[in-house]
From TrEMBL:
Cofactor: Mg(2+)
Protein name per Swiss-Prot or TrEMBL: N-acylneuraminate-9-phosphatase-like
InterPro entries assigned: HAD-like_hydrolase (IPR051400), HAD-like_sf (IPR036412), HAD-SF_hydro_IA (IPR006439), HAD-SF_hydro_IA_CTE7 (IPR011950), HAD_sf (IPR023214)
SUPFAM superfamilies reported in the protein's UniProt record: HAD-like
Pfam families documented for this protein: Hydrolase (PF00702)
Signal peptide: none
Alphabetical UniProt keywords: Hydrolase, Magnesium
Annotated transmembrane regions: none
Length: 248
């Protein structure tokens, strides 16, 4: 870590600032209820939702002209057909997808204590939101949780040539804020993208949000700091700046 004070903090969005995992669980429950009550599906309802979750977990960064609505509706269509057999049912797939999506977005909120933390931090350092993912999907989440006003800049991976963990997107963020990589801290919940990306770009520090107390694999990138909640970040930043003061 360099000997300058922290000048900027880059935040991941999903499962760092907003509880995307919980929002998704709520959405899945709503779709299961729909399939069981309106269409008399039984155990098939959960199987369909599980299949969609697997397809989502394998989703890659697609070209900017890819329609995410069509793509994700297709996941539901395929999952329904794989589970039930028979002809494809696009209409049902659309109903499931739009219910899933709207419920997800309803549950994506920025907690009051997180808002307060961001407001206080921004008095001292630049704040930037750096999120991977499809442009439309991530922009809808940003709008749903109304977080844009807490940041000096917002960067969506799907709008750039490369996403985290590529160093180029971190350098782009530094340029936006007029800072050097050694002035910046990356905060996120994913070792392979947030932490590895911060390490690749030579940031001052990386902070891993390990809410579920996961034990990382030996081959995983090693963060400078590990916390259980993003609300622990101010203490980490004080610690970093304290080390700078002691060194100088």
């Amino acid at each position: 870590m360099g000997l300058s004070r922290v000048r900027a903090v880059f935040f991941d969005l999903d499962n760092t600032l907003i509880d995307t995992a919980e929002a998704t669980r709520s959405a899945v429950l709503e779709v299961i209820k729909l399939l069981q009550s309106k269409y008399q599906y039984k155990e098939e309802a959960k199987i369909i939702c599980d299949k969609v979750q697997v397809k989502l977990s394998k989703e890659c960064l697609y070209p900017s002209n890819t329609c995410i609505t069509n793509l994700r509706t297709s996941y539901w269509e395929e999952a329904i057909q794989e589970t039930n057999g028979g002809a494809a049912n696009r209409k049902l797939a659309e109903e499931c997808y739009f219910l899933w999506k709207s419920t997800c977005l309803q549950h994506m909120t920025l907690a009051e204590d997180v808002k307060a933390m961001l407001t206080e931090l921004r008095k001292e350092v630049h704040l930037l939101l750096l999120t991977n993912g499809d442009r439309q999907t991530q922009r809808e989440k940003i709008e749903a949780c109304a977080c844009q006003s807490y940041f000096d800049a917002v960067v969506v991976g799907g709008e750039q040539k490369e996403e985290k963990p590529s160093p180029s997107i971190f350098y782009y963020c530094c340029d936006l804020l007029g800072v050097q990589p050694g002035d910046c801290v990356m905060v996120g919940d994913t070792l392979e993208t947030d932490v590895q990306g911060g390490l690749n770009a030579g940031l001052k520090a990386t902070v891993w949000i390990n809410k579920n107390r996961i034990v990382p694999q030996k081959s995983s990138p090693v963060p400078h700091y590990t916390v259980s909640s993003v609300l622990d970040l101010p203490a980490v930043l004080r610690s970093i700046d304290c080390k700078v003061n002691m060194s100088s």
